[in-house]
Amino acid sequence: MNSKVALVTGASSGIGEATSLKLKGLGYTVYAAARRIDRMQPLVNAGIQVLAMDVTNDASMEAGIKEIIAKSGRIDVLVNNAGYGSYGAVEDVSLDEARAQFDVNVFGAVRLTQLALPHMRQKRSGTIINISSMGGKIHTPLGAWYHGTKFALEAISDCLRMEVQPFGIDVVVIEPGGVKTEWAGIAADKLREVSGRGAYAGQAKAMAESMDGEASRKRQSPPELIADTIAKAVSARRPRTRYAVGFGAKPMIFMRRLLSDRAFDSFMRMATGISRISS
What we know:
The protein is about 55% helix and about 15% strand. The protein is α/β, with parallel strands linked by helices. Helix 4 (about 95-125) links the parallel strand 4 and strand 5.
């Protein structure tokens, strides 16, 4: 029970898988959580303990935390990575889907944080890593609900950071840019399904291509880059509050700060190819 303990959600692939392996390499006892544990045999082979966990199910999260405490007696690092991108025109996306997007990307992360915090406060130490996105600072066409969740997670993280600082707990936001994971393909497919017909079809086609087209895939950063950044944050005596990392993250966030709302709108419409779509 002497080694530090980390819980990583959304660990069946991509950033979560890479982060679990990285923290294991740093000597952490790692619990990798996901709904699809059948995909996690490589993590098991690496000596990582896997948990079946659904971040939209309170009982599932409570059981996971109880198992970690029973086996390891502590939680030092929580990486809230589970999430997906729900894209589609605001007019087209059902409110049920909008709620599901917030349930996974926001409420799941917050509830797991609530469950982990008492154990961190008891030891007066810990690090909560919230995986946001450059999409928590910028906006793209047809991504209202996804960006809404990431803007919310950024604000919640800021408030949480002030609340838990007296207990020796750090809150760190990671803002990835384009990363080589399943995320973009799933989000693009969702966009085509929701808004691929009707008034927004042209915009949806252009935006989906900008997300999962060959040109985009070639520029994406490996998930190991994000894992390395998380490792840097948890290893630092005084970590930064935010790390923007991965393809496009820093320049896109800088552009958003530099440009007016309408100027950034025009920039994004041009960058995604939507400016060529006639209404």
